Amino acid sequence: MDTGETWGDDVLAGFEARPIGKATLVRSTGGRAEPRGAVLHVHGYNDYFFQTHLATFFEHQGLAFFAVDMRRAGRSLRSGDVPHYMTDISQLGDDIDAAAATINAAHRGLPLVIHAHSTGGLAAAVWAADRPAHTLAGLALDSPFFAVPTSLRQRLASRAVPAFARARPMAVVQQRPSAYARHLLTAQGGRWDFDTDWKTPLGVPVRAAWLAAVHRAQARVMGGLRVDVPVLVARSHSTGPDRDDNPLIDAQDTVVDVQAIARYGPGLSAEVTEAVITGGVHELSLSAPVPRAAYLAAIRSWLPKAIP
């Protein structure tokens, strides 16, 4: 899908960006002149692409690196937008479609790997089952958002979400700060610098229509998908509370239920590789050095299944 847009300077040194429909595609200006494949990074909720070390890693594997900032997120956020708002997961699929088509136009026929995190992983899994690009060679999921830890009371309350979303789609159903995001920041003693307007420690309010869309997509995953390429499903070894008083906040997933990933990940494809990263945080690529290295090693070992 080439709209005639041109590449321009990005907010990150060594990268370029261009609009693709309602989203923004980012590419590294480094890497090999003749890559053996391409990779597209897809971010999660309260997130955008800033993980430049991922570009370096994938380029060392011989792949051209791209990332997409989805509609109403990061570089794609426009005045008046409700951050990350959607009414169906297919809207994020449209953005992945546009990115894949643009990459294929730039690297005609090269195999494409999707590397997707959290809500992006949920969207990418559904997209890959429903309408994959013909160049899709593999799907690598970093802590896909298949479920959050919930009590029985919360599960019962979730039954009211579809009707509530129809009546009041923009209603805020959850609003709380993100201890996880705060602890990642170098200013708070973490390891990473990022734009706190685009990935905010204050958290992004969850709205009824967004939550209903996520629940519908998760139900599809729970029923089993038919992704026709090799899939890597990676998760932390444990889930814990997203609170400042959690002593393991820098050593476990504090956002999604890793047991749900373990339960439903094998049903994504006939060829699923699982990776459990001890000490990994929600975005495994942002973990401490040892679990981060273990995660990247898992991708390196899996890649030949997607791109021999």
Describe what you observe in this structure.
- It contains nine helices and eleven strands.
- By secondary structure, the chain is an alpha/beta fold.
- The chain has one domain (8-306): Alpha/Beta hydrolase fold, catalytic domain (Rossmann fold).
- The strands form two sheets. Strands 1-2-3-5-4-6-7-10-11 form a nine-stranded mixed beta sheet, with helices on both faces.
- A hairpin with a 2-residue loop joins strand 2 and strand 3 (23-28).
Give a nutshell description of this structure.
With about 300 residues, this protein is of the alpha/beta class. It has helices at about 50-60, 90-105, 120-130, 150-155, 160-165, 180-185, 210-225, 260-265, 290-305; strands at about 10, 15-20, 25-30, 35-40, 65-70, 110-115, 135-140, 170-175, 205, 230-235, 270-275.
Rg to the nearest angstrom? 18 Å
The string of secondary-structure elements, in order, is EEEEHEHEHEHHEHEHEHEH
Average pLDDT, all residues: 94
Span between termini: 27 Å
The biggest beta sheet is recorded as: 9 strands, mixed
CATH class category name: Alpha Beta
Can you list the strand order of the major beta sheet?
Answer: 1-2-3-5-4-6-7-10-11
Strand content: 15-25%
Can you tell me the number of structural domains? 1
> By CATH's scheme, which homologous superfamily applies?
Alpha/Beta hydrolase fold, catalytic domain
Count of strand segments: 11
